């Protein structure tokens, strides 16, 4: 059994899967608005006055609720959805849906309060108290809304930068609690639930599908795979300053449908912190008896993993990611990596099929000592006839994927020096988000077609 045999088991979904998933997402929003229209929502708007304000408040709340459920599905780890779009793209959509739902929730709360106050001829402050205290489920809804607003606030990039991953991950889980707390008020007081059998059917189905997806794909499937493959730490090896590799052994790994370039969410069952999963790419071609990840020692959890003893049990979620050979379009390849983004690139350099001279790797780091896995990269390059370029030095002040020592060259010129035929190659990219933005601009200037650029953002 070889590593190639493992990779052959995984198939990419057809394009119609992606089209169908997008159509279902848009269709859910259309259904929500159609149900509102069926419930005389538009007539109330045309009638004007307080009824119009209340009706608009209801539709904003319904669309916000649907977007919240779509957020849950985007992060439910549905295998075919993840393989169609890739987890980094799903995360971006998840954040976008979250921002839209945030503003719609605020609009819903404000419009419903004003509309009800107008109908009851009371003040807004008094109506807030009445809604919160006298309406069934509203206290829970208020608590759930506050949790959701807090999670959205902490998901803003400026806030995320101030938090460790461990803290952000724990706080982010409260979004599920917020959605759960908001559900009862929709069931008990929502006009769509109490007055329409079709709406009740839709919403019960939507909540059931989301809850079932979370249970099956976020809990049951990872637990089953973890039990089946029984992964354990074999050894921990330091590769460079602040970078170490974890070797893992297990059983029936040839049945684990994983490709070079993919990643798992890992939970190391040490004394503390095991509840937090971390996304780490495989840094070597998957083998029937061994997997390997390479980790940057940043944060409490990374330090804890570095101290893991041989025999430590490991739980997994995955594999995830589309940074594999299945998206390849051309014979030649160019691999571009920065920092710990070298991990999937090293696996791809080893696993992808290519002839001597058809593959090149450019690896960016701040100092020469920071180049992790350098001996392995050089050995693969000699054995397979690939070119490896090490670009070390501090970053320039302007946006660039090159170190300051090469500032006399444009980003596009350096691409052509490394691979003169870059526009006819598949380009795989992985690194920190700012560096990724710079390399995408350089590839666009080099006229590399979008369908030949395959990337995975290294960031949360």
Automatic annotation (TrEMBL):
Location, primary (coarse class): membrane
A single cellular component GO annotation: membrane
InterPro entries: FAD-bd_FR_type, Fe3_Rdtase_TM_dom, FNR_nucleotide-bd, MRET, OxRdtase_FAD/NAD-bd, Riboflavin_synthase-like_b-brl
Residue ranges annotated for the FAD-binding FR-type domain, each copy included: 226-326
Membrane topology designation: Multi-pass membrane protein
Signal sequence coordinates: none
Segments crossing the lipid bilayer: 20-39, 59-76, 97-118, 138-159, 171-189, 201-224
One annotated GO molecular function: 2 iron, 2 sulfur cluster binding
The UniProt record lists the keyword Transmembrane: yes
Keywords, in A-Z order: 2Fe-2S, FAD, Flavoprotein, Iron, Iron-sulfur, Membrane, Metal-binding, Oxidoreductase, Transmembrane, Transmembrane helix
PROSITE patterns hit by this protein: FAD_FR
Matches recorded under Pfam families: Ferric_reduct, NAD_binding_1
SUPFAM superfamilies with a match to the protein in the record: Ferredoxin reductase-like, C-terminal NADP-linked domain (SSF52343), Riboflavin synthase domain-like (SSF63380)
Listed cofactors: FAD
Record localization: Membrane
Stored PANTHER family: 1,2-PHENYLACETYL-COA EPOXIDASE, SUBUNIT E, NADH OXIDOREDUCTASE HCR
Stated name of the protein: Oxidoreductase
Organism: Rugosimonospora africana
């Amino acid at each position: 059994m070889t590593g190639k045999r493992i990779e052959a088991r995984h198939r990419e979904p057809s394009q119609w899967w992606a089209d169908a998933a997008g159509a279902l997402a848009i269709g859910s929003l259309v259904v929500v608005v159609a149900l509102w229209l069926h419930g005389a929502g538009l007539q109330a708007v045309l009638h004007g006055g307080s009824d119009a304000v209340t009706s608009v408040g209801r539709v904003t709340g319904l669309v916000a609720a649907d977007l919240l459920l779509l957020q849950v599905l985007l992060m439910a780890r549905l295998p075919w959805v993840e393989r169609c779009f890739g987890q980094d793209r799903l995360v971006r959509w998840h954040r976008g849906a979250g921002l839209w739902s945030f503003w719609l929730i605020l609009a819903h709360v404000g419009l419903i309060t004003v509309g009800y106050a107008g109908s009851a001829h009371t003040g807004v402050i008094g109506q807030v108290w009445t809604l919160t205290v006298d309406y069934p489920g509203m206290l829970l809804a208020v608590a759930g809304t506050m949790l959701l607003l807090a999670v959205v606030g902490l998901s803003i990039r400026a806030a995320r930068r101030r938090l460790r991953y461990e803290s952000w991950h724990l706080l982010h889980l409260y979004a599920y609690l917020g959605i759960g707390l908001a559900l009862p008020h929709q069931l008990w007081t929502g006009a769509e639930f109490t007055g329409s059998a079709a709406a009740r059917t839709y919403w019960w189905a939507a909540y059931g599908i989301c809850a079932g997806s979370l249970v099956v794909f976020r809990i049951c499937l990872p637990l089953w795979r973890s039990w089946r493959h029984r992964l354990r730490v074999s050894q921990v090896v330091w590769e460079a300053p602040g970078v170490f590799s974890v070797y893992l052994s297990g059983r029936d790994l040839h049945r684990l449908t994983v490709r070079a370039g993919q990643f798992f969410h890992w939970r190391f069952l040490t004394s503390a912190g095991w509840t937090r999963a971390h996304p780490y790419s495989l840094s070597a071609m998957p083998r029937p008896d061994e997997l390997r990840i390479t980790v940057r020692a940043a944060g409490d959890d990374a330090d804890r993993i570095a101290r893991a003893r041989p025999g430590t049990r490991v739980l997994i979620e995955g594999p995830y990611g589309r940074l594999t050979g299945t998206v390849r379009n051309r014979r030649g390849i160019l691999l571009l990596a920065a920092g710990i983004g070298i991990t999937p690139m090293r696996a791809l350099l080893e696993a992808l099929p290519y002839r001597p001279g058809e593959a090149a790797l450019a690896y960016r780091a701040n100092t020469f000592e920071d180049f992790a896995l350098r001996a392995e990269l050089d050995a693969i390059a000699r054995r397979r006839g690939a070119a490896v370029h090490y670009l070390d030095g501090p970053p320039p002040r302007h946006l660039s994927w090159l170190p300051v020592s090469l500032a006399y060259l444009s980003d596009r010129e350096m691409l052509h020096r490394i691979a003169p035929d870059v526009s006819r190659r598949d380009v795989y990219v992985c690194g920190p988000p700012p560096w990724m933005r710079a390399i995408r601009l350089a590839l666009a200037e080099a006229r590399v077609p979008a369908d030949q650029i395959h990337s995975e953002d290294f960031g949360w």
